[in-house]
Write a structure and sequence with these properties.
- This protein has about 150 residues and is an alpha/beta fold.
- The protein is built from five helices and six strands, in the order H-E-H-E-H-E-H-E-H-E-E.
- Strands 1-6-2-3-4-5 form a six-stranded mixed sheet, sandwiched between helices.
- The longest helix has 16 residues.
- The radius of gyration is 13 Å and the shape is globular.
Amino acid sequence: MDDNKVIRQLIRVNLELEGFEVVTAADGAECLEVVHQVCPDAVTLDVVMPRLDGIGTAARLRADPRTRELPLAIVSACTQCEVDAGFAAGADAFLPKPFEPAELVGLVRQLVAWKSRGGRRPTEGGGGAVRYRHGGFGGVGESGSTAHAEPAG
């Protein structure tokens, strides 16, 4: 979920170059539909978007038994209050914009690795610009699929 077309392209290209299959959605409501159709290994969300924002989308994904354990990351330029609200809604990680492409790829690898380890919640601190709700993720996982929801335009 990102209202900037350049950022959407950056996210897609960088993840696809690393072997990830990327599916996008125009907003939070469409993201919920796509997640149930595609069953991605991880989801990245922007905070600000039409119909349903990233925080609301995270809360709905956490409330649904089918997606309760799906790794979620907020990738957004937002206030500390919004970061806190994202973590409270169930986001596992936060990557601030602007970000280095390697940070995005590393974050998604960690999320996918976490899911492949059976959803074991992270327990140690992360590094770089990425912040985690429960600490950091350890190790690097295999490439999987990720969904990124953003407004069209």
